[in-house]
Design a protein that fits this description.
- The chain has a four-stranded parallel β-sheet. Strands 1-2 form a two-stranded antiparallel ribbon.
- By secondary structure, the protein is α/β, with parallel strands linked by helices.
- Strand 5, helix 7 and strand 6 form a beta-alpha-beta unit.
- The chain folds into two domains: 49 residues, Helicase, Ruva Protein, domain 3 (Orthogonal Bundle), CATH 1.10.8; 109 residues, Dna Topoisomerase Vi A Subunit, Chain: A, domain 2 (3-Layer(aba) Sandwich), CATH 3.40.1360.
- The chain starts with 5 loop residues before the first helix and ends in a 5-residue tail after the last helix.
- The protein contains eight helices and six strands; from the N terminus they run αααββαβαβαβαβα.
- Helix 1 crosses helix 2.
Amino acid sequence: MGYYPPSIQSLIKNISRLPGIGEKTAERLAMHILRAPRREVEQLAQSILTVKDKVRFCSRCFALSDDELCQICRDPARDAALLCVVEQPADMIAVEKAGAFRGRYHVLGGALSPMNGIGAEDIRIRQLLERVKNSGVKEVVLATGTNVEGETTASYIARVLEPYAVKVSRIASGVPMGGDLKYVDQVTLKRAMETRHAM
């Protein structure tokens, strides 16, 4: 990288700090930025600064938002009695893209992981219980990950919600569409068998 001027070296170094971006990709992106019209580069720089200045967590569901309440929490057409619990904002976006859920969300900000020192007080379980208690929620859909941490989190939340008059459900998991059984791992196949349904 020493053959580039210091300004380009600095740009490559900064771009390569982004997750999933290696030095070669950072170099290509730096060269693209160098060739791009100044207006495009200014728009890119401004959008990065705007995100840093403007984006915050929704005060109700903790999704990413430019305002105090996110678009989903402000949408009167969403079913406020149906609450989907996810680990991260990206999980909420994945559920939204699927287009099958018309309720509201609660973003925990992580999953229980005693091995990593993450307990119930480190994620937004207390806020979830407050919402269930005070917001007319009738069903909580647990859409945490299917790894050990996600399953532990879902089990814990189901247990702490037992005293409340609310239905608790868990998203189904199993064999993906188009999946070939011989390539599916044993845990996923076991879950698929346990959650089978009538045709």
